[in-house]
Structures are given as structure tokens and as C-alpha cells.
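Blinded run. Sample ID left blank on purpose so nobody reads anything into the name before looking at the predicted structure. Input follows.
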Amino acid sequence: MAKPSTSAASDPMVERLRAALGRRAFTEQKMFGGTCFMVDGNMLIGTSKRGLLVRVGKDAHAAAAALPHASTMEMGGRSMHGYIRVAPEGTATDADLAGWLDRALAFVDTLPPKAKVKPAKRSKMRTH
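Blinded prediction complete.
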């Protein structure tokens, strides 16, 4: 019998985000040490053991960062303006989570869809 992979441990927030997004088209991608949700190729929201990462855009950043349990996302000691980290306490209820998701959608819905990048074709080497 195979051992379950510990890296595949289910994050309950991933399930909550899937449910909250409902029928909206999205994709999931491993990023920032967790799972990020993408809409039209643009990062929308993500989750990791550090909490929720919410893309709100630079114009809405100050107002979002002033909310309870929210702070500016930092990566490598650098502030990421337009991205908010929400501590787990800030997403305790479905209403809290929906509020953060609505903020992210309000910004990401203003962005143009990203073109899908086709992987480069590998040339086959022939030996004669």
C-alpha cells in the first residue's frame, strides 16, 4: 500500500475558495508556497500556511491594508503594493472570505486576459 504524500495534504482554504468562486472560470497554480487562483491568466487570490494573499491593485491597497487582520504582502523583505496578506483570523467566516474575494475580483476583472504561452517545441536530434 502506497503512503499518502504529505505535500498533497489538503488545505481547507483551497476548498473554501473553490466553493466561493462557484461557477466562475478559474485555474489553480502552485505559487508563493501555496495555491493561487487565476482568472483569465491573472493571479486573483492565493492561500498558504501564512494566510490568504489577495490581489487588490495599487489604488485599493491602502484601504484594504487598513482592514482588520490585513497587512501588505512582503516577499524577500520587499513590500508588494497591490497585494494584501490576510491572517487566518480575517477569513474565519464565509462572509469574511467573500469580502476579500470580492475585492480581488473587482481589481482583476479590470485586467485584460493574458495570452496563453505555448511551450517551446523541442527539436529532435537525429544521428546519421
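Unblinding after everyone has recorded impressions. The longest strand covers residues 78-86.
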